[in-house]
Design goal:
The protein has 254 residues and is mainly β. It is built from no helices and 18 strands. The two termini are 29 Å apart.
C-alpha cells in the first residue's frame, strides 16, 4: 500500500470511533515513525491491520488508509489544547465516515469518535503505562481523559492525569480529573468511573464536578507499537442522564 503523505509529525496521533452499540468500532495509536497499526472491529470479528494516517492538525480532515478501506476523520467543534500540561497536543470530538473490511465483509462506517495528539515524550522511557478514555455522547457532548504512569511508579496515585470536556457552550480543560477502574482477572478494564472537577470562572477555588461511569461492551483488541502493548475496548458511558459510546485504551511498556 502506498499513500502520499507529508513528513511525519513529531508527536503521537490517536483516534477512536464507535457506533452507539459498539457493533462497529476501531482505534489507532500512531507514533511519529511508521508503520501505522489500526484495529477495526465489526460484531464478533476484528482485524489489526497496517494503515497510513494523513493529517495532524485539529483544523484539517484526517484520512486513515487501511489495507481494505478508508476512513475520513472530521473534527467537530473546538479542540481543547493541552498547552504546557503533561501530554501536550489537543483533544477533539470527530465524525468518522467511510468503509472497512473485517472478517472478509465490507462495512460502512458513519459514527462519532475522538481524536487527539500527544507529545513525543509519551514514547520515552519515562512513561511506563497510560490509560486513555474518551466518550462521544453527542457531536458536542463528551470528554477525554489521559492518565500517565511514570516509570518505576508503584500505583495510580503517581499518575499525571489530564482531561477535557466537550460541550455546546464551551470545550475546555479540566482542573482536577480523576479516573478509577475495575479490572478482570486478566487485567483488562471492566468498569470505570470518571470525576471531572471543572473550574467555574476565574476563581480556581470555584469548581463543580461532572461524573461519568462506564462499562465495557463487545470484545477487546490487542496489538503492540514502539515497545508498548495496547488493549482497546469499546465502553458505554453514563453521565448525568446522558449516555453514549466511547473507548478505553490501555498502553503498557513491555
Amino acid at each position: 500500500m502506498s499513500v502520499a503523505t507529508r513528513a511525519h509529525p513529531e508527536g503521537v496521533r490517536a483516534l477512536a470511533f464507535s457506533d452507539p452499540d459498539g457493533e462497529v468500532w476501531g482505534a489507532a495509536w500512531v507514533p511519529p515513525s511508521s508503520p501505522v497499526t489500526a484495529t477495526v472491529s465489526a460484531g464478533a470479528a476484528s482485524s489489526t491491520v497496517s494503515a497510513a494516517l494523513e493529517g495532524e492538525e485539529a483544523t484539517e480532515s484526517w484520512q486513515l488508509q487501511l489495507e481494505d478501506g478508508i476512513l475520513r476523520v472530521e473534527g467537530l467543534g473546538d479542540p481543547v489544547e493541552n498547552g504546557d500540561r503533561g501530554p501536550g497536543g489537543f483533544d477533539q470530538l470527530c465524525q468518522v465516515s467511510g468503509s472497512v473490511v473485517v472478517g472478509g465483509d465490507a462495512r460502512e462506517v458513519s459514527c462519532l469518535g475522538w481524536r487527539g495528539t500527544r507529545s513525543p515524550e509519551l514514547l520515552s522511557g519515562g512513561v511506563d503505562a497510560f490509560r486513555q478514555v474518551a466518550a462521544w455522547i453527542g457531536p458536542e457532548d463528551g470528554f477525554s481523559l489521559l492518565a500517565l504512569r511514570p516509570a518505576r511508579a508503584k500505583g495510580h496515585d503517581t499518575e499525571e492525569v489530564s482531561a477535557a470536556v466537550f460541550a455546546a457552550d464551551e470545550a475546555k480543560p479540566v482542573a482536577e480529573p480523576r479516573l478509577s477502574t475495575t479490572y478482570d482477572d486478566s487485567g483488562e478494564p471492566m468498569r470505570a468511573g470518571v470525576e471531572l472537577w471543572i473550574q467555574a470562572g476565574e476563581d480556581p477555588d470555584q469548581q463543580y464536578p461532572q461524573r461519568a461511569v462506564g462499562e465495557r461492551i463487545q470484545h477487546s483488541a490487542s496489538w503492540a507499537v514502539e515497545g508498548l502493548a495496547f488493549t482497546a475496548r469499546p465502553f458505554y458511558w453514563h453521565a448525568g442522564g446522558r449516555e453514549g459510546p466511547g473507548i478505553y485504551l490501555l498502553g503498557q511498556r513491555g
